[in-house]
Automatic annotation (TrEMBL):
It comes from Paraprevotella xylaniphila YIT 11841. Keywords: Ribonucleoprotein, Ribosomal protein. The lineage of its organism: Bacteria, Pseudomonadati, Bacteroidota, Bacteroidia, Bacteroidales. This is Large ribosomal subunit protein bL32. GO terms for cellular component: large ribosomal subunit. The gene is rpmF. GO terms for molecular function: structural constituent of ribosome. The keyword Methyltransferase does not apply. Belongs to the bacterial ribosomal protein bL32 family. Residues 1-19 have a biased composition (Basic residues). One of its GO terms (biological process) is translation. Residues 1-20 are annotated as: Disordered. The keyword Ribonucleoprotein applies.
Length: 61
């Protein structure tokens, strides 16, 4: 397998990693219940997606 001859310096590794960071997901307001949910996902509060019931929430155990 291809293998680097020399170890990459800490500086070089850290320079590359300056561009790595977590981004906050885009949130949307559910038109059914008004709660925030992640875009393109079923609302975790009411189970609606695109105006229809996608998953039926069961009562809390
Ligand atoms: Zn909802």
């Amino acid at each position: 397998m291809a293998h680097p001859k020399r170890r990459q310096s800490k500086t070089r590794t850290r320079k590359r990693r300056t561009h790595d960071k977590a981004v906050a997901p885009t949130l949307a307001v559910c038109p059914n219940c008004g709660a925030f949910h992640i875009y393109h996902t079923v609302c975790p509060t009411c189970g609606y997606y695109r105006g229809k019931v996608a998953i039926v929430k069961e009562a809390a155990v």
